[in-house]
Amino acid sequence: MSQFAAENLTCVRGGRAVFARLSFSLEPGTALFLLGPNGSGKSSLLRMLAGLLRPISGRLTWEGQPISDDPEAHGARLHYVGHHDAVKPVLTVAETLHFWARLHGGDSESRVQQAMERFAIKRLADVPGRLLSAGQKRRVNLARLIAAPAPLWLLDEPSVALDKASVKALEAAMAQHRAEGGLVIVSTHAEIDLPEATILRLDDFAAPSQVAA
Amino acid sequence: MSRFIELLRRELRLALRQGSDSMMVVGFFVLAVILFPFGIGPEPGILARVAPGLVWVNALLAAMLSLDRLYQGDYEDGSLELLILTPAPLELLVAAKVTAHWLTTGLPLMAASPLLAVFLNLDATDLGVLLLTLAVGTPTLSLIGSVGAALVLGARRGGVLISLLVLPLFIPVLIFAVGAVDAASHGFPWTGQLAILGAILLGAVPLGLYASAAALKQAAE
């Protein structure tokens, strides 16, 4: 049985079918690359996989159990990195990371330190969010992945605003996560090195537009 | 429970560091009430007669001022999505938000009321009853207001829309709160009105938490 699987997902946004009958299944340690032109539904699919968006049909299963049975358990096993970085202007980098780690159910000082080291934000630990650049905010957001462990990473264009060194750090983090048996699902337009990833082209699942909401 | 405390601590920290909101609410409350003696004349009898109503109506309006920011910041910067995805019930987040809102608006409003009682010639017993009604009534405002704040997420001019949604729902609280103080000032028993305020609060707790959580999930889709 595969660890995380989607069967016949259909997504409708604003009365327009974005994709239909989309299926995949992932084993532990594998990665999925979402490719497709703007508007092909990469972000919608990731939000659906996170449980933020309900599919109009089809289902998602984790180890055979539908994720809609227990949304909180699904929340516990995933990290979602979306378009916004969720960094508060008045909270420092360290406070932000500790907060998310604790909410996620595990706050160990060593993991937060490790996360800050990985994305080279350790010297920014006491800097409030309003003074961070776009790339630094993105690194804080990505550091959440390390600060609290979760098997499923859902990354929506994670390399936006990142410099080359940070993209390398992200690639290393993803490789290590997969080596430990984790799953990574990434959408991107940029070059991210993800060895042996399955590629899912969303335009293959583009739906005829007459499907009503 | 530890998640609730963690969320509450974050909310209070945010409120404390960007401080202006809470101060603005209390400032508005005090100034608006002080305007009335100028508007209707300094006659002590008239002021004492309208004092409970004045304090309560202005407390409602002051609480409205801070409501539109309750979820807006988290909605705009992506925190709301992550909060929905944390392995805790969303109602817990709402409970923490509402508690923080009450601690930073309801409680300061109560603290400012004795000062206003002096301006309005309200005697000490009536002030005691007024404070009790505020203690029981203002948490209801935060709870009902939270539903309104969650419903208007993503709307333009959400602040005005919240007022239209929520102010009519505050009417029962207003009626029984002012009724209790009026009864006390005429020497009648007032615990009945207070008990009804308490009942409204108890009803508003589950309703406010579940309705806000549902509205937040809708907003995040």
Give a topology summary.
The complex is a heterodimer of chains A (213) and B (221).
Chain A (H helix, E strand, L loop, with lengths): L3 E10 L2 E11 L4 E5 L6 H9 L6 E6 L2 E2 L4 H6 L1 E4 L11 H11 L5 H10 L15 H14 L4 E5 L7 H16 L3 E5 L10 E4 L12
Parallel strand pairs in A: 3-8, 3-9, 6-7, 7-8
Antiparallel strand pairs in A: 1-2, 1-4, 4-5
Chain B lengths: L1 H16 L2 H21 L3 H24 L1 H8 L2 H7 L4 H30 L4 H28 L6 H9 L4 H15 L5 H30 L1
Helix pairs in contact in B: 1-6, 2-3, 2-6, 3-6, 3-7, 3-9, 6-7, 6-10, 7-8, 7-9, 7-10, 9-10
Overview features:
heterodimer; A: 213 residues; alpha/beta; Rossmann fold; 2 domains; five-stranded parallel β-sheet; four-stranded antiparallel β-sheet; 9 strands; 31% helix; 24% strand; globular; B: 221 residues; mainly alpha; 10 helices
Structure summarized in a few sentences:
Chain A has 213 residues and is an alpha/beta fold. Helices cover 31% and strands 24% of the residues of chain A.
Give the total of beta strands of chain A. Answer: 9
**SS-derived structural category of chain A:** alpha/beta
How many structurally independent domains of chain B? 1
Helix/strand class of chain B: mainly alpha
How would you explain this protein's 3D organization?
The complex is a heterodimer of chains A (213) and B (221). By secondary structure, chain A is an alpha/beta fold. Chain A has 2 domains: 1-77 and 151-213, P-loop containing nucleotide triphosphate hydrolases (Rossmann fold, 3-Layer(aba) Sandwich); 88-149, no CATH class. Chain A contains 6 helices and 9 strands; from the N terminus they run E-E-E-H-E-E-H-E-H-H-H-E-H-E-E. The longest helix of chain A has 16 residues, at 164-179. Chain A is globular, with a radius of gyration of 17 Å. The model of chain A has no long low-confidence stretch (mean pLDDT 89). By secondary structure, chain B is mostly helical. Chain B has one domain. Chain B has helices at 2-17, 20-40, 44-67, 69-76, 79-85, 90-119, 124-151, 158-166, 171-185, 191-220. The two termini of chain B are 27 Å apart. The mean pLDDT of chain B is 92.
